[in-house]
Design a protein that fits this description.
Aminopeptidase, 6 helices, about 20% strand, binds zinc ion
């Protein structure tokens, strides 16, 4: 099966950072890198990436790519932010998104990813939600978007900066993929 990993945003994206200066892409791409490495152990799985360390790939470019290779699953990895991004706010925890139409398979994968992420990280469970995000709307395959904690939370940011947490997120998402697709 073909799995597309999408580390949201790019290094240069303005605004997508914590009050203490963490850029969202640093987190997103580290989790994607970790997942790619772990998934290379499974012969039945091919992993592709939509993002690049060199430039901020446009959303359309990301979904066009996934559609063109007929991917089976699209996983967009993000860290959340609330407020104006310049100060710490109360919002915290992990949430996983599917498209508004709540596609059955995406919902099943999202529920599993959310459950595994919460049990691995112990962060606040914000549940599975729906949204009209480009990467969920324009992908022709099962697609989910994961928000692995808030960069604007004093509590979550400690985790988002830690390598242990990034690797825990990677393992949890892979565990959910394996449970859902039996590989
Ligand atoms: Zn994001």
């Amino acid at each position: 099966m073909k799995i597309v990993l999408d580390a949201g945003h790019g290094f240069q994206t303005p605004g997508k950072r914590s009050p203490c200066g963490l850029r969202e892409y640093e987190f997103n791409s580290a989790v994607a890198r970790c997942m790619k490495e772990s998934l290379s152990n499974f012969r039945s799985v091919s992993v592709y990436e939509t993002h690049s360390d060199l430039y901020d790939a446009a959303l359309k470019q990301r979904t066009d790519f996934a559609n063109s290779i007929h991917a089976d699953v699209f996983i967009s990895i993000h860290a959340n932010a609330a407020g104006n991004g310049k100060e710490w706010v109360e919002a915290e925890g992990i949430e996983t998104y599917v498209y508004l139409s709540r596609p059955k398979e995406a919902l099943r994968l999202a529920e599993s990813v959310q459950k595994n992420l919460i049990s691995a990280t112990k962060l606040k469970n914000r549940g599975v939600k729906t949204a009209d995000f480009h990467v969920l709307r324009e992908t022709k395959m099962t697609a989910i978007l994961v928000e692995c904690g808030f960069m604007t939370s004093r509590k979550d940011i400690i985790e988002l900066r830690s390598d242990h947490f990034k690797s825990a997120c990677s393992s949890a998402i892979i565990k959910a993929l394996r449970q859902t697709y039996q590989f």
